[in-house]
Amino acid sequence: MPFTTTRIAAAHLAVLIALPLAGCTSREPRGAYALGGDICTSEIVALAGIPAGEPRRETGEEEGRPTQSCTFGVRVGGTRGRDDAVSITATRHEDGASAAESYRRWHDSDTSVAAGVHDLGTVSTGVGAFRSVHEHQVAIQDDNLLVRVSWPDHEAGGPPDVATRLRTVGEAALSALRRSAPPSPPTRRDGESTPDPVLDPSTQAPTHTVVADLCAVLDLSALSPAKPSDVRRSTLKPDRLRGVTCSVTFPPAGGRESQLLASAAVPVDGDGATKIARMYAFERHRRPTQTRDVAGLASATFVQTQAPTMTTLLAYDGNLRLELLWLSSGDEDAADLQRRLVAVADSAVARL
After folding, report:
1. Residue 316 phi/psi, 5° resolution?
2. Lowest mean pLDDT among 20-29, 250-259, 304-313
3. Given this model, what pLDDT does residue 90 score?
4. Which residues on adjacent β-strands are paired with residue 242?
5. Residue 106 contacts by C-beta under 8 Å, 6 or more apart in sequence?
6. For residue 244, which phi and psi values (nearest 5 degrees)?
7. Is 216 exposed, middle or buried (0-12, 13-18, 19+ CB in 10 A)?
8. What is the mean pLDDT of residues 249-253?
9. At CA 94, angle to CA 92 and CA 98, rounded to 5?
10. What's CA 230's distance to the chain center, in Å?
11. What span, in angstroms and rounded, lies between the C-alpha atoms of 334 and 325?
């Protein structure tokens, strides 16, 4: 059944506040990877193309080994095109030797050889290859993890850069599942009394509440002088966080449409400032590259440019978590775009 593009607002935005958990299971793998991260985030989904439909997460087993998978739609061919279903499957092996053997069987199988396997050469980590038989598929193995990313193959053909897209998604999935140590406290000078806003949240931190319409509190004029072509709001089902989302689409300006995806959330139970601060610290630690900390906005804020077409701002203030994701043609000046996102976030923090 085809994916429905009109469901992008609630579905795609819901991913924004699905926070990754630091993996802590009773049976830890012997290797660099666990399945405690999230391979179905909005950032990873967007690497494959324009999202369409609701991403679906699943956990299971493959030959007795735990797996995490994500299936989502990607729009191909513009408004008159179609929605293709892309899938990611990550299998955690007991050690690196087992994962390497599974990758070798995939690489050297009769099906792969008949279809023609193309090694990807240098990947960010591990080894990887691409094949196209019944579907386009990239497999990447590093240490104790094997990741496979698939795109359907049909008569209409896929994007000309399908192998690159699958490879990029696979590498992002590896990064999401790599285990890492928690952030270390900064070294303080003797007599220094100023607390770190992330590691030591203030007991006098402001208390925020979410509103029914997040779109109404965002200063969209700070982001673009153009009138939005589509504005949609939604309220997410409470889990650990109670949240609201806003999706704003701006008309094309020399390229494709631009879209702002915003989410604001507060913890359902008490001790909100401490919980949000720890979540923020973990997320900041997981995004060490292409990231800039922003002074003067909320308790702590950072901006990350993952690609020319995708920029994320994440802020926390007391018990509030705010995230903005900007998707565009990538023609904007990066520094100016970051300033505009900061202005939008500032308007939201002040009004929530």
Report:
1. -130, 145
2. 20-29
3. 95
4. 266
5. 112, 139, 146, 148
6. -130, 155
7. exposed
8. 82
9. 90
10. 23
11. 14
Distance between start and end Cα atoms, the chain: 39
Q: Print the SS3 string covering the chain.
A: CCCCHHHHHHHHHHHHHCCCCCCCCCCCCCCCECCCCCCCCHHHHHHHCEEEEEEEEEEEEECCEEEEEEEEEEEECHHHCEEEEEEEEEEECCCHHHHHHHHHHHHHCHHHHHHCCEECCCCCCCEEEEEEECEEEEEEEECCEEEEEEEECCCCCCCCCHHHHHHHHHHHHHHHHECCCCCCCCCCCCCCCCCCCCCCCCCCCCCCCCCCCHHHHCCHHHCCCCCCCEEEEEECCCCCEEEEEEEEEECCCCCCCEEEEEEEEEECCCCHHHHHHHHHHHHHHHCCCCEEECCCCCCEEEEEEEECCEEEEEEEECCEEEEEEEECCCCCCHHHHHHHHHHHHHHHHHHC
Q: Using one digit for the tens of pLDDT, what is the confidence trace for 7-36?
A: 344 444 444 444 443 333 334 446 888 898
Which residue segments constitute the domains of the chain, with CATH numbers given? 5-177 (3.40.1000), 214-351 (3.40.1000)
Rounded alpha-carbon distances, angstroms, from residue 78 to 33, 52, 161: 37, 11, 16
**Identity of the residue numbered 341:** L
Residue with tokens 């292409």: 290
The pLDDT score that the predictor gives to residue 86 is 92
What integer pLDDT is reported at residue 270 of this predicted model? Answer: 62
Per residue in 144-161, pLDDT tens? 999 999 988 765 556 677
Q: Count of residues for the chain? A: 352
For the entire predicted model, the pTM comes to 0.47
